[in-house]
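Escalated from tier 1: adenosine-3',5'-cyclic-monophosphate holo job.
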Amino acid sequence: MATTRTFSIIKPDATRRNITGAVVKMLEEAGLRVVASKRIHMTREQAEGFYAVHRERSFFGELVDFMISGPVVVQVLEGEDAMQRNRDIMGATNPANAAPGTIRKELAESIEANTVHGSDSDENAAIEIAYFFKPEEIVG
Ligand code: CMP
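Tier 2 regenerated the structure:
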């Protein structure tokens, strides 16, 4: 299995509760390495651009409002099959459906305040990484 990269966001519900370290610990214990990380407060424009694929969804406005409600931590994660590995440790989008031991089951508050975002394909990972990071900011 190849070493690959994926993109992760620790969302405002986690920065508000001061549990970003707990999230990173679970990512690291799942075999992922943080090779880039920065704490930012997204602008509305940035959040709308990032979630543009969801623009027609009923929850788009609330999603953007939530993502700009506080700081987030954007990260690049590296590991064997990083995208799938990250999705496995994140758990289902809705914490009510997430498996025990996953980040969303253990830490998330709701389907909106669900603590983490992770890319859903290697192609989207590359796009999402480039949206927030310059190549020289990624130190593997
Ligand atoms: P994320 O992986 O960041 O991608 C889109 C986000 O929309 C998703 O996680 C959820 O947190 C959020 N969201 C809010 N409401 C819904 C909903 N009803 N269905 C799916 N996703 C939702």
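The pocket of adenosine-3',5'-cyclic-monophosphate is lined by residues 54, 59, 63, 93, 111-112, 114, 117 (CB under 6 Å).
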